[in-house]
Amino acid sequence: MINKRLLIKNLLAHNDENSFYDKKRKLNIGEKEGKAKLLKHICALANSNPENNSYIVIGVEDEDNEIIGVDFFDDSKIQNLVNAYLDNPPRVAYENIPFPHLSSDKVVGLVSIRAQGGKLCSLRKNIWKYYGGAVFLRDGSISMPKVFDIEIKDVNSQIVNAIESHAQNNIELTLDGVFDFMSSRKDYNPSYKVFKEYFVVCWAAKEKRQNGETYYSRVDIELINEQVKLFYSELDEVSITLTDEQFKIIEYVQLGLQDTYKYYPLEEVVITFKDNAGYDIESKLLFEPPQYDRKTLYHLYNSNNALIDKLKNKISLSKNEEKDILNLPGTYLICYFNGFSEAKERLEEAKPYLKTYNDNVYLLYKESIRILRKVRYS
Question: Residue 365's pLDDT is what?
């Protein structure tokens, strides 16, 4: 089993960006340009590595390889995005890898790419400035379009296999990982469980009991063997169920209008551990968005737009408006789920103004975008 933290260190130490791995300071797949560039790099890496894994490391400075981290990026649906835009799509996984020197809300993103079927991967349809049918390959550290017949060659398998073999997990790394987690999250009742005498899952959370049920907030869950953060949330409430073979998480989101809120199940994630030292992660979207009177939503939608216009023009908000802006991301989200298709664009346009307004509002914005992405790509 590969220790993903050690794998990232080996990739960064091996060489600069090349034909089997790329590094980025951050990704932004909320915009067409960022989405198109990610698809281009995935396509190029898949075509340049027909027989081995290739990787994109996210949260690293380009000049000196300093690990700065990025926000936890909960996107188990990234494969759906790849399948929608690429012909002969590779298998793609996005994982969040914690590093001890980063704060608990920061990780390094690791995108793993594996070509399938020995056929060229290409863009299925136009996106941003790239045309449908385009084929990309890696030319050193650059993903380049190719418009001629290409013979796929295997040139990296031995190098990548060597890097991966030097990143294999061991008992010392596992124990260090458990001790690090228990020490760093001791403020939120850290626990661990061993599955199938091999896998170690650690989690920490703030417990809350309501109507005879137990829920958790400020949840942090890691699969220690691979140094992968499986779940992280500062806001949402989560239920956790354990058996000898499974670790199940049901995530709830709080939505509502005019100070009346309710928790709605968003997604169920089940991790099943096997006797053959393998495991499966299956996710199922449970979300059924609340429906509201359209006249009420139209009024709130226009009020949100007016608030954003004030922030754009640097006009001070009244006391009531300061309270209303805390509800703005969630209200835009509800409007979108109730047929206001333009609400998504208005929410995304509001990002720079909410980011500079204060940290609490920006955190609520990021949470709304995360929910939107989950629902959209399911």
Answer: 94
